[in-house]
Amino acid sequence: MEKQSLRLQLSSGGSGQWTYSGGLVSYNNSNTTDATINVTPQPSDVNTDITMTWTVGAGEVCDGAIATKTIRFNQPTSISSPDTYCYLWGGLTSADNATGSNWYKWDATKSMWARQSTAPSTSTDKLHVLTTDNNCIHATNAVTLGTTTIASLNVGSGATMNLGSGTVTLNGDLTNAGTINEGTGTVSLTAAGDQTLSGGGTTNFNNLTLNKTSDNLVLSSPATIKGTLTMNKGNINNGSNILTIGESSASPGAITHNSGSVTGKLRRYFANASSSSKYFPIGNASTTRDVTVSFGSTPGSNQFLTASYNAGIHS
Fold it and tell me: How far is 268 from 258, CA to CA, in rounded Å?
């Protein structure tokens, strides 16, 4: 773990006294009269210009003269209430997600983010991807995930990430206010309890597999699956938030269905070919009321249908 500290050194040496103003720092040295001193930030005064002042001691040449240096300890600030499981993408070294120094982790004892020497690697990790924040996040080194298991994923407004070519097993919620690009891999949802996709951003998956121990996937925002949706266990509760399979007649996507229902709106693209058909596993929370739609002639280029189940009126 890389700790924030700054070394101040006077080339002339001699005796004197260090003081500060504009914010708080901690001296790593026991004696503030050393010409060379290390200081660390206080959580209350990160992202603040602090003036360090050296005053020449009595009896020295230029007795009482001062030298000043303005310092600043930068910290990301866009995550509210982080905990010790939180990792933040910085990308300051490269775009490699496996390089530890590209990540920050929340240090609860210091109430600050610290750059890491190892990348996140456990199923309890909560990953955050944000835009440039106080010079702590690289503007263009967007992260691409590899095969991993994580507790949750949060993509901030204006941020972009790629899901990569492996399998991302997500045990919790996905919040996306930015852009998630699908990559070529699979996102797998297998955990117990409802898992929510929210945030209002642009969320694309290549393949999505739903095989939950219990409960469902809740879509509070629209999502697109450009490859294959595999439904083994659990419903997709999406209401008016459209779940789209495919992206064009040339790439219509696919559904492999064994169990569960899409309880809201399901959109499917059709190939521009005769006898083109698509299966819609729509229904309610307890019953799948599925339907297959077939075209006797070519439906045209980039055509789609949106279907949802509506309960009938019983007399």
Answer: 18
Per-residue model confidence as pLDDT tens digits over 29-60: 767 888 888 999 899 999 999 999 999 988 88
Can you tell me whether residue 206 is helix, strand or coil? coil
Helix then strand count (H, E) for the chain reads: 0, 30
CB 281 within 8 A of CB 255: yes
**What is the DSSP code (8-state) at residue 46?**
T
Alpha helices in 91-228 (DSSP H): none
Q: What is the pTM of this model?
A: 0.89
Q: How many residues does the chain have?
A: 315
Query: Confidence band (pLDDT; 50, 70, 90) for 273?
Result: confident
Write down the pLDDT at residue 89: 97
Residue 288 backbone dihedrals phi, psi, to 5 degrees: -85, 120
> Quick check: helix, strand or coil at residue 292?
strand
Judged by phi (left if over 0) then psi (alpha if -120 to 50, else beta), residue 310 lies in beta
Helix (H, G, I), strand (E, B) or coil at 23: coil
Q: How confident is the model at residue 223 (pLDDT cuts 50, 70, 90)?
A: very high
Q: Is residue 160 within 8 Å of 177, Cβ to Cβ? A: no
For residues 205-236, one letter each, b for 16 or more C-beta atoms within 10 angstroms of the residue's C-beta and e for the rest, the string is bbbbbbbbeeebbbbebbbbbbbbbbbebbbb
Lowest mean pLDDT among 67-76, 94-103, 121-130: 67-76
* Separation between Cα atoms, residue 139 and residue 157, nearest integer Å: 13
Beta carbons of 244 and 223 less than 8 angstroms apart: yes
Instruction: Please give the angle made by the CA atoms of 143, 146 and 151, to the nearest 5 degrees.
Output: 85
The residues, ordered by sequence, that sit 6+ positions from 265 with a Cβ below 8 Å of its Cβ are 238, 239, 240, 241, 242, 243, 306, 307, 308
